[in-house]
Amino acid sequence: MNKKFRKYLFKNLILTIILMFLLSFSTTVLAEQVKFSFNPEEVDFEGEVDAVYIAGSFNDWQPAAEKMNGPDAEGNYILEYNLRPGEHQYKFVINGEDWFHDPNNELTTADGHGGKNSIIKIGEKELEEAQTGDGEINGEFILHNPENRVHLNKFNEDKVEIRLETRKNDVETVALMTKIGTERNQKQMSHYSADNKIDYWTVSFNNLDEALEYTFLIKDADTELLYHQNGSGFNNLKYFFYDPSEVESFKTPNWVQDAVFYQIFPDRFYNGNPANDPELIETYKSNEKRYKNIVPEWYQGIKESESHQLNPDDFIDLDPSIHPKSGWHVFYGGDLQGVEQKFDYLKELGINAIYFNPVFEATANHRYNTADYGKIDDNLAIKGDFEASEAYFEKFIKNAHQNGIKIVLDAVFNHSGFEFFAFKDVVENGNDSEYSDWFYIEDYPVNTLYEQRTKNIEPNYQGWAGYGNHPVLNLDNSEVKGYIYKITEKWMDPNGDGDPSDGIDGWRLDVANDVKARHPEFWQEWRNFVKKINPAAYITGEIWNNAAQYLQGDEFDAVMNYRFREAVLAFIAEERIDAQDFINRINEPNLDYPTQAVFSLQNLIDSHDTERFLYSSGGNKEKLKMAAALQFTYPGAPMVYYGTEVGLSGASDPDTRRTMLWEERPNGNSPDQELYQYYSKLAKIRKENKVLRTAGVQFEAVDNEPKIVIVKREDKNGKIYTVLNAAQTAKEINLKLKNEVQAVDLLSGKKYQSDSKELRLKLEAYSAQILKIN
Ligand SMILES: [Ca+2]
Ligand SMILES: [Ca+2]
Ligand SMILES: [Ca+2]
Ligand SMILES: [Ca+2]
After folding, report:
1. How far is the CA of 168 from the centre of ligand 1 (A)?
2. Which residues are catalytic?
């Protein structure tokens, strides 16, 4: 429901005159502005061209996310696009289905499916490689910005981390020169990461409760350079200044670092109580033609013709390519009782936290159109009785907690549903409604969903992404805010006694960027409120791209790590990037986000908003296993989307929301027990090896092996290397060592003995090993 609308990324800043100059080129680079042009007549395509899209590494290769403008008089489709520096790959997609590389761009690479991707390089500075030991230091790359939480990061009252960036491979050592009171000292900084251009240095203080003045002493061979608040050099010296009493701490809940999340779409996980199934949902103000959401058998899919019968008033958008399974409007009857009945299944799998898609009263199967934030949907609990449903939910939480399972709910605060009581009042009473300022109403009377759909008119109020069933809430209105705060507190401390142990353990913030765009202060204030109720409550945002601005300590603890997914998808599932590119991409969040946020990320490979990873992998289970091995041995919490652990597949929404596979179906599909055991083993490995939850991460690529990556976790708790071979053939590599080691692959149990220089590894095609090294 909440795909990020990347069209907002577009910039239309190019001057007409420059455009005219550029028109003769197929693809033109102008700083970061790119103008793509495509003429379907230049490629081998037969049939009607309804629309042309561009898909690429910059938009997760979504086939129909970026629509090109056109055709113009010459038949060209054009799109201006803003790209970050670096290399990007792309294709044009006719009608969102047929893929073509750019016929006018000679720079291509294999796409992994027998075709080609076009390549574009943006704004790369042609710099000669820097060198260590040459006595030269590139001052222009040195950076420490105390305003950025990543560079000056206060964890708690006396722990702080300080970071510095230098040009990659340029300097030998960096020391932090400190002055506390009158006492001067220096502390060596350690090199903790690097990307294409930058080396990253860090140092921490664990017992610092007084003000600190500091500068950085950077050395290469005999050259020394002092970096301070006024720049480099010994002239005009000004210390950076850190006063713990003036900086807020950024604390994330400790438990998240040890969490293994399971994401549940409630209607589709397990029907534990057929008595609460929705037989008929009467949607408000569409009485003339009710649409009926039948509950089919758990194993049944929706056929196109049946869908028509289900939806006589054409409420749904039919896509014949989406077979076999779940439709947008059908209910299967999954519920909270079903989840409770499967606690043992989840515990056996190694799950200790659940993120639920919405569970509040609503008329859609996804429940992102909230009717009442103060009620648990009776169809997920006790039908027709909201009081009993709420009491049941409290028991459910208690039982979950007794089973060691934390509960995170979806916070859909950007918009309500059309059936939300306040919105209904506005529909009934128009401008006279006391709730008219709760929304963004453009015109009275408010047109109903039924009118919008039958007369094909736009809503005359703001709806999320233009949808009439998602009226946007005015969170600047103090009454709306008060309402949201009230329900926030209600679910975090249901009995209101000030002890949050009877409440939920955190919130996942739906379309959090849309909320911030309208109400820049909302999340900061809300975070303070939440943390006052329960300092250990987890706040995670739905942010698809770089979330650094949300992770400065005053908004979210973490985000759903879609950047992790995109890197893993590109490297493993789609085989379109090499090891070095993969390392650069997957490492970006580690460089962009403060450490405590990195260790709280929800690392996912699929969700209710994406294709299933297995589907993206063309059904290749070995690829899924590789991705999972990485997910479970990586900093941050792995999050498993229900069913992925038993081989549930599915295309994008709604097909990604198929019913959970519990037993063999009439069509022969059955849960993959071997895969389940594999996941369970991964969770066990993570649990038994603390280093996987505490250490930072380093990466290594192997010379001449563009499909092999070594992911290293190492600290006082141990040393584990996850070795991924994303090639379609077996490989042998020699892992360079400083001394003799013994290693065991925690997945297969296979033992290795190195000599004093290297460890010889044999890697199967599409495989992962998790090497514990002694
Ligand atoms: Ca140098
Ligand atoms: Ca049910
Ligand atoms: Ca209901
Ligand atoms: Ca309580």
Report:
1. 9
2. 510, 542
Ligand nearest to the backbone CA of 336: 2
For the chain, give the percent of residues with pLDDT over 70: 89
Instruction: Kindly give, in sequence order, each residue whose CB lies less than 8 Å from that of residue 117, ignoring residues fewer than 6 positions away.
Output: 56, 89, 90, 91, 101, 108, 109, 110, 111, 576
Q: Please count the CA atoms within 13 angstroms of the CA of 555 that sit on its side-chain side.
A: 24
Residue 65: pLDDT band (50, 70, 90) is confident
Q: First and final CA of the chain: distance in angstroms?
A: 47
Cα–Cα nearest to 101, from 55, 69, 62: 55
The pair phi, psi for residue 664, each rounded to 5°, is: -60, 140
Burial (CB count <10 Å: 0-12, 13-18, 19+), residue 608: buried
Q: What's the rounded Cα separation, in Å, for the pair 161 and 180? A: 16
User: Can you give the pLDDT at residue 769?
Assistant: 98
**Which SS3 state, helix, strand or coil, does residue 762 take?**
strand
User: For the residues 216-223, what does the mean pLDDT come to?
Assistant: 97
Bridge partners, residue 118, by sequence: 90, 108
Rounded to an integer, what distance in angstroms lies between the CA atom of residue 445 and that of residue 430? 6
Instruction: Please give the backbone phi and psi of residue 602, each rounded to the nearest 5 degrees, phi first.
Output: -95, 105
**Residue 355: C-alpha distances to residues 352, 410, 522 (Å):** 10, 8, 22
Tokens 């910005």 identify what position?
Answer: 145
Give me ligand 2 centre to Cα 230, in Å. Answer: 65
> How far away, in angstroms, is 384 Cα from ligand 3 center?
8
**pLDDT digit string (tens) for 479-499?**
999 999 999 999 999 999 999
> Closest Cα partner for 608 from 316, 326, 311?
326
* 102 within 8 A of 39, measured Cβ to Cβ: no
Q: Predicted confidence band at 293 (pLDDT cuts at 50, 70, 90)?
A: low
What's the CA-to-centroid distance between 511 and ligand 2, angstroms? 28
Cα-Cα-Cα-Cα dihedral sign, residues 526, 364, 340, 276: positive
Q: Which among 559, 708, 595 has a CA at the least distance from the CA of 162?
A: 595
Q: Which residues pair with 361 in a beta bridge?
A: 372
DSSP 107: -
Q: What whole-number distance in Å separates Cα of residue 202 and Cα of residue 155?
A: 14
Ligand minimally distant from the alpha carbon of residue 494:
4
Q: How far apart are CA 433 and CA 426, in angstroms?
A: 5
Closest ligand by atom to 167 CA: 1
Dump pLDDT digits (tens) for 108-153: 887 766 788 898 987 655 567 899 999 999 998 999 999 999 999 9
| Domains, the chain | 6-122 (2.60.40.10), 139-249 (2.60.40.10), 261-416+476-685 (3.20.20.80), 421-466 (3.90.400.10), 695-773 (2.60.40.1180)
Is residue 332 within 8 A of residue 267, CB to CB? The reply is: yes
> Which of 99, 135, 283 shows the shortest CA–CA distance to 218?
135
Question: Distance (Å, rounded) from C-alpha 754 to C-alpha 176?
Answer: 38
What confidence tens digit (pLDDT) does each residue in 586-621 have?
A: 999 999 999 999 999 999 999 999 999 999 999 999
How far is it, in rounded angstroms, from Cα 20 to Cα 18?
A: 5
Neighbours of ion ligand 4 (CB under 5 A): 493, 495, 497, 499, 502
The structure tokens listed for 576 are 């379109």
Mean pLDDT of 569-596: 95
CA of 665 to the centre of ligand 2 (A): 19
Which pLDDT does position 454 carry in this prediction? 79
**Residue 506 and residue 539 in contact, taking contact as beta carbons nearer than 8 Å:** yes
C-alpha span between 458 and 477 (Å, rounded):
25
Determine the distance separating the centroid of ligand 2 and the alpha carbon of 365, expressed in angstroms.
Answer: 12
Ligand nearest to the CA of 491: 4
User: 610: number of CA atoms within 13 Å, CB side?
Assistant: 28
659 DSSP assignment: P
Cβ atoms 123, 32 nearer than 8 A: yes
